[in-house]
Amino acid sequence: MTQVVQESVKMLEMLPESEQEFANQFIKRLVLAWDPDFTKLTLEERKRLEAAEQRMDSGEYVKDSDINW
């Protein structure tokens, strides 16, 4: 968790529950505006994807039994 996220959580915890719900809805709208199809990758997801692509380029494949379907 980044420092910014930690600070945001601390501030949210200071709010009354009704205001926390308002902030939660606002954040959801913000994320949907940024990525309406949920197709963008976070920095961590991008790193894992690139690592997996490198393994595939070297001939290594993932067994379907290793995937959490």
Question: What's the topology here?
Answer:
Layout: H1 3-14, H2 17-34, H3 43-57
Summarize the structure.
It contains three helices and no strands. The protein has helices spanning 3-14, 17-34, 43-57.
Features:
69 residues, mainly alpha, elongated
What does this 3D model show about the protein?
- The protein is mostly helical.
- It is 65% helix and 0% strand.
- It is built from three helices and no strands.
- The chain has helices spanning 3-14, 17-34, 43-57.
- The radius of gyration is 18 Å and the shape is elongated.
- The protein starts with a helix and ends in a 12-residue tail after the last helix.
Order of helices and strands: HHH
Low-pLDDT residue intervals, each spanning 5 or more residues: none
Average pLDDT across residues? 89
Shape: elongated
Distance between the termini: 26 Å
- Any idea what the radius of gyration is? 18 Å
**Class of secondary structure makeup:** mainly alpha
- In total, the number of strands is 0
Strand content: under 5%
Main β-sheet: number of strands, strand sense, barrel status?
none
Helicity, in percent? 55-70%
- Number of DSSP helical runs: 3
